């Protein structure tokens, strides 16, 4: 019987097991790092910007004399980073928003009843009418500058799509055109 040395073994099973565990650990750490980078990375839609403020200064060539008489130069830069604050678009009060309600689903009187609800809520309302073709789902079409107000009207028709008004000749005088579509329930 020969004596085997301390490092010699019958099989490499333990070595391959340890190697597999080490590789798996490296993969897991890499995945965690990737996830954190993606989670905290500034994407193209990020609202942060770095700008140089007019009051920031940059100075170069400052020199310092040491006790042995030698002179050393250093450059120093001072800048200010700012992150613009998101400003909410002001929403006009209901009394400053003209709304017309159009019925595209043929539910008798629905546009008139919705017009009354909007009037009771303080909106300026125009006479209700019908609209063709039938819309699916309801629509809130807004004129330029009235998207925030159209989104506020989702309170009355939660299933509606908020979209810009593409035809300015439709309902002149209205800031928002509400079209009751399929799925609208009173």
Top keywords for this entry?
186 residues, alpha/beta, Alpha-Beta Plaits, two-stranded antiparallel sheet
What can you tell me about this protein's structure?
- The chain is α/β, with parallel strands linked by helices.
- The protein has a domain at 94-180: Alpha-Beta Plaits (2-Layer Sandwich), CATH 3.30.70.
- The chain has helices spanning 13-40, 110-120, 147-152, and strands at 58-65, 71-77, 98-103, 124-125, 129-130, 139-142, 161-164, 176-180.
- β3, α2 and β4 form a beta-alpha-beta unit.
- It starts with 12 loop residues before the first helix and ends in a 6-residue tail after the last strand.
Write the layout of secondary structure elements.
Blueprint: H1 13-40, E1 58-65, E2 71-77, E3 98-103, H2 110-120, E4 124-125, E5 129-130, E6 139-142, H3 147-152, E7 161-164, E8 176-180
Parallel strand pairs: 3-4, 3-5, 3-8, 6-7
Antiparallel strand pairs: 1-2, 6-8
Would you summarize the structure shown here?
This protein is an alpha/beta fold. The chain has helices at residues 13-40, 110-120, 147-152; strands at residues 58-65, 71-77, 98-103, 124-125, 129-130, 139-142, 161-164, 176-180.
Average pLDDT, rounded to a whole number, is: 77
Number of helices: 3
Q: Termini, distance in Å?
A: 94 Å
Q: Please state the structural category.
A: alpha/beta
